[in-house]
Amino acid sequence: MSSESVPEPSAEALRTQIDQMADKTVQMLKLVRDAFARVDRTPLEPAARLGREIHQLDRVLLASLLSGDDARRSEAVFIPMHLERIGDNIEALAAETGGMISHGVLFTDRAVREIANLFGLATDLLESVRDALRTLNRTLISHALGEGAQIEALADEYALSHQKRLIEGVCVPKASSAFVARLDHLKGVEWHAREVAGRLASASLPADGQDRRRWQP
């Protein structure tokens, strides 16, 4: 008995899935941010569910993109790969936050403000990347690249301040490792988000900054 071949997904269907994947990273980071801010594990369960959905979308997208002969699709493989790595880092942030709540690890007020600031900036960055994927607008792409650089610089500045607090004995070692882990994972979110923006920046765009065909996987 002959089997029918599965039709190759359309570019529009692939764009929709990538858009869903990017939007889920935004939702997921917001939930983990809320769990940290409220010292409440409740948002971590829906965040974990979004993480699983991101991994599933990545598998589906890679299978679709790698099955085509179009060179554009082969290049587009890197977009969902970076989005999944963003999801990995948010999952790690969720695990750190859950552990902090369960074990009663306390940060100094300054450390809480620093992490909260980075959470906010990282959320704005992911929203910019998501919107840039939808529109390929040059201004949005440039904004995302600038936000990423700001997060990297601030995280490095906070790391130096943290070392000073540790030396002065203001921060205990247990809280110290948790703080540094959060910096690393937020920098991971930033790095992969900036990689997505960088790939979009290298795309050929019309002079007015808008791609009338939208992004073509």
Please specify the SSE layout and strand pairing.
Layout: H1 11-38, H2 44-67, H3 71-76, H4 78-103, H5 109-135, H6 138-168, H7 173-201
Helix pairs in contact: 1-2, 1-4, 1-5, 2-4, 4-7, 5-6, 5-7, 6-7
Report a brief summary of the structure.
The protein is mostly helical. Helix content is 79%, strand content 0%.
Query: Strand pairing plus helix content: what structural class?
Result: mainly alpha
CATH topology (fold) name: Methane Monooxygenase Hydroxylase, Chain G, domain 1
**Sequence of secondary-structure elements:** HHHHHHH
Number of strands: 0
Count of distinct structural domains: 1
CATH architecture: Up-down Bundle
The overall average pLDDT, rounded, is 87
Q: Approximately how much helix is present in the residues? A: over 70%
CATH homology group: Phosphate transport system protein phou homolog 2, domain 2
The description of the largest β-sheet is: none
Provide key terms for this protein.
single chain, Methane Monooxygenase Hydroxylase, Chain G, domain 1
